[in-house]
Write a structure and sequence with these properties.
The chain has 123 residues and is mostly beta strands. The chain is built from no helices and eleven strands. Strands 2, 4, 5, 6, 9, 10 and 11 form a seven-stranded mixed β-sheet that branches. A hairpin with a 6-residue loop joins strand 4 and strand 5 (44-50). It starts with a strand and ends with a strand. 31% of the residues are buried.
Protein backbone atom coordinates (compact mmCIF):
# COMPACT_ATOMS: atom_id res chain seq x y z
CA UNK A 1 0.00 0.00 0.00
CA UNK A 2 1.33 3.41 -0.90
CA UNK A 3 2.13 6.03 1.68
CA UNK A 4 2.17 9.80 1.34
CA UNK A 5 3.11 12.20 4.12
CA UNK A 6 3.40 15.98 4.10
CA UNK A 7 5.24 18.32 6.41
CA UNK A 8 6.49 21.89 6.57
CA UNK A 9 3.35 23.93 7.08
CA UNK A 10 3.19 26.85 9.45
CA UNK A 11 2.31 30.50 9.90
CA UNK A 12 3.98 33.29 7.97
CA UNK A 13 3.36 36.92 7.16
CA UNK A 14 2.33 38.04 3.71
CA UNK A 15 5.32 38.19 1.40
CA UNK A 16 7.10 35.40 3.24
CA UNK A 17 8.08 31.91 2.14
CA UNK A 18 7.53 28.32 3.20
CA UNK A 19 8.67 24.99 1.85
CA UNK A 20 6.44 21.95 2.08
CA UNK A 21 7.79 18.42 1.83
CA UNK A 22 6.03 15.29 0.68
CA UNK A 23 7.58 11.89 1.22
CA UNK A 24 6.16 9.27 -1.12
CA UNK A 25 6.93 5.63 -0.55
CA UNK A 26 5.70 2.15 -1.29
CA UNK A 27 5.33 2.48 -5.06
CA UNK A 28 7.01 4.08 -8.05
CA UNK A 29 4.55 6.93 -8.45
CA UNK A 30 4.19 8.46 -11.86
CA UNK A 31 2.75 11.75 -10.68
CA UNK A 32 2.75 13.77 -7.46
CA UNK A 33 0.56 16.77 -6.88
CA UNK A 34 -0.03 19.43 -4.28
CA UNK A 35 -3.56 20.52 -3.49
CA UNK A 36 -5.09 22.95 -1.04
CA UNK A 37 -8.43 23.45 0.60
CA UNK A 38 -9.54 26.58 2.39
CA UNK A 39 -12.55 26.56 4.75
CA UNK A 40 -15.78 26.50 2.80
CA UNK A 41 -14.03 25.93 -0.52
CA UNK A 42 -13.35 22.94 -2.69
CA UNK A 43 -9.97 21.29 -2.83
CA UNK A 44 -7.99 22.72 -5.74
CA UNK A 45 -4.86 21.64 -7.53
CA UNK A 46 -1.84 23.88 -6.97
CA UNK A 47 1.08 22.13 -8.65
CA UNK A 48 1.98 18.72 -10.02
CA UNK A 49 5.05 16.96 -11.34
CA UNK A 50 5.49 13.92 -13.57
CA UNK A 51 8.22 12.09 -11.73
CA UNK A 52 9.76 10.44 -14.78
CA UNK A 53 10.18 13.41 -17.12
CA UNK A 54 10.00 16.13 -14.51
CA UNK A 55 7.17 17.91 -16.33
CA UNK A 56 5.55 20.49 -14.08
CA UNK A 57 2.12 22.06 -14.04
CA UNK A 58 0.88 24.99 -11.96
CA UNK A 59 -2.42 26.62 -11.19
CA UNK A 60 -2.60 30.16 -12.56
CA UNK A 61 -3.00 31.54 -9.06
CA UNK A 62 0.47 30.37 -8.01
CA UNK A 63 2.51 30.64 -11.22
CA UNK A 64 5.71 32.54 -10.64
CA UNK A 65 5.42 32.18 -6.86
CA UNK A 66 5.39 28.42 -6.21
CA UNK A 67 7.87 25.84 -7.45
CA UNK A 68 7.47 22.07 -7.32
CA UNK A 69 10.58 19.92 -7.37
CA UNK A 70 11.68 16.40 -6.52
CA UNK A 71 14.58 14.61 -4.88
CA UNK A 72 14.84 11.06 -6.19
CA UNK A 73 17.27 9.93 -3.52
CA UNK A 74 14.91 10.85 -0.69
CA UNK A 75 11.62 10.02 -2.45
CA UNK A 76 10.56 13.56 -1.63
CA UNK A 77 8.63 16.16 -3.57
CA UNK A 78 8.86 19.77 -2.44
CA UNK A 79 6.63 22.77 -2.85
CA UNK A 80 8.56 26.00 -2.44
CA UNK A 81 6.10 28.82 -1.81
CA UNK A 82 7.26 32.42 -2.08
CA UNK A 83 5.58 35.82 -1.98
CA UNK A 84 2.78 34.25 0.00
CA UNK A 85 -0.58 35.98 0.20
CA UNK A 86 -3.39 35.71 2.76
CA UNK A 87 -5.47 33.94 0.11
CA UNK A 88 -2.89 31.14 0.09
CA UNK A 89 -4.10 30.18 3.57
CA UNK A 90 -5.38 26.62 3.43
CA UNK A 91 -4.74 23.03 4.36
CA UNK A 92 -2.23 21.72 1.86
CA UNK A 93 -2.34 18.10 0.74
CA UNK A 94 0.09 15.97 -1.18
CA UNK A 95 -1.23 13.25 -3.47
CA UNK A 96 0.33 10.61 -5.69
CA UNK A 97 -0.68 8.16 -8.38
CA UNK A 98 0.90 5.57 -10.67
CA UNK A 99 -1.20 6.30 -13.75
CA UNK A 100 -0.68 8.85 -16.45
CA UNK A 101 -3.21 11.68 -16.67
CA UNK A 102 -3.74 14.63 -18.97
CA UNK A 103 -5.19 16.57 -16.02
CA UNK A 104 -2.56 16.43 -13.29
CA UNK A 105 -4.24 19.19 -11.27
CA UNK A 106 -7.52 17.27 -11.10
CA UNK A 107 -7.94 15.76 -7.63
CA UNK A 108 -9.97 12.91 -9.10
CA UNK A 109 -6.93 11.34 -10.77
CA UNK A 110 -5.04 10.71 -7.54
CA UNK A 111 -5.35 7.55 -5.46
CA UNK A 112 -3.07 8.22 -2.50
CA UNK A 113 -3.38 11.21 -0.21
CA UNK A 114 -1.58 12.57 2.80
CA UNK A 115 -3.24 13.95 5.92
CA UNK A 116 -2.49 17.57 5.11
CA UNK A 117 -0.42 20.37 6.59
CA UNK A 118 -1.79 23.79 7.49
CA UNK A 119 -0.44 26.97 5.93
CA UNK A 120 -1.58 30.29 7.38
CA UNK A 121 -0.58 33.61 5.85
CA UNK A 122 -1.35 36.75 7.81
CA UNK A 123 -1.63 40.23 6.35
Amino acid sequence: QGHVEESGGGSVQAGGSLRLSCVVDGYAYRRVGWFRQAPGKEREGVAAIETGFGTRRYADSVKGRFTISQDYADNTVYLQMSTLKPEDTAMYYCAADRRWSSSPLDRGVYSYWGQGTQVTVSS
